[in-house]
Structures are given as structure tokens and as C-alpha cells.
Design goal:
Length: 117
């Protein structure tokens, strides 16, 4: 069994190994997997911060934080913010809010957030 696991890990790509690591890290927290997030319904999702962008929307600075849990991604959009202490690249976080589709990406606007150790 251990030999088969090692063989499968050696044949896996870096992206597959990273996805597996993230799925293991966030299992058991009662979170919705990011590839199955329902739209226009309250959700509780989590993952590691993979991207932090400051992008203006209608002339207002907006902080966009992308989370990944190994199954997909979701972007938290914080209107009027340029920085949130603790929400940095590589940090684990949980977002709670209503998910919606914006273009081809899933977005939660002004989510409540919790930092995960």
C-alpha cells in the first residue's frame, strides 16, 4: 500500500500534489469545496491565499484576495480596502458570504473572514 502511494506521488505533477495537500489541510472544517460552491446562497469556504490584488472599481480601491482549496478558487472582494492585516499570500483563511459569478470567476463581496492557524 505504501509503495503504491509513493509510486502515485512520484508520478503526480506539482499541481496535483499541491491540490492534494490543500484538500487534506481543509478537510474536516465543515467548508464547502470551492468546485461545488452554490451561487446566490450563503457559503462558508476556505483555502490558502494565492493572489492579492488592489484593483480600482468605479474609482474606489478594492482589495481582491483569491483563495484555493485544491478543488477550485474563489475571490473575496473587499470594497474600499487596500490592505487587511493577516490576509497575505500563503495564509489560510475562511470566507463567509454570498457567492456570485463575475465573468468566469466565483466572487464573494465583502465576506466575513477568519484567519486559520
Amino acid at each position: 500500500m505504501a509503495r503504491q502511494t509513493l509510486r502515485s506521488r512520484l508520478g503526480a505533477s506539482v499541481a496535483e500534489l499541491e491540490g492534494s495537500r490543500l484538500q487534506t489541510r481543509f478537510s474536516g472544517l465543515g467548508l464547502t469545496p470551492l468546485d461545488t460552491v452554490p451561487l446566490r446562497a450563503p457559503v462558508r469556504v476556505g483555502g490558502e491565499v494565492t493572489r492579492v490584488i488592489i484593483a480600482p472599481r468605479s474609482g474606489v480601491p478594492t482589495l481582491e484576495i483569491m483563495l484555493s482549496d485544491g478543488t477550485g478558487t474563489v475571490t473575496g472582494v473587499f470594497m474600499g480596502r487596500r490592505r487587511i492585516p493577516g490576509l497575505e499570500h500563503g495564509r489560510a483563511a475562511i470566507f463567509e458570504g454570498v457567492a456570485m459569478l463575475e465573468g468566469a470567476r466565483t466572487v464573494v463581496v465583502n465576506p466575513a473572514y477568519t484567519l486559520v492557524a
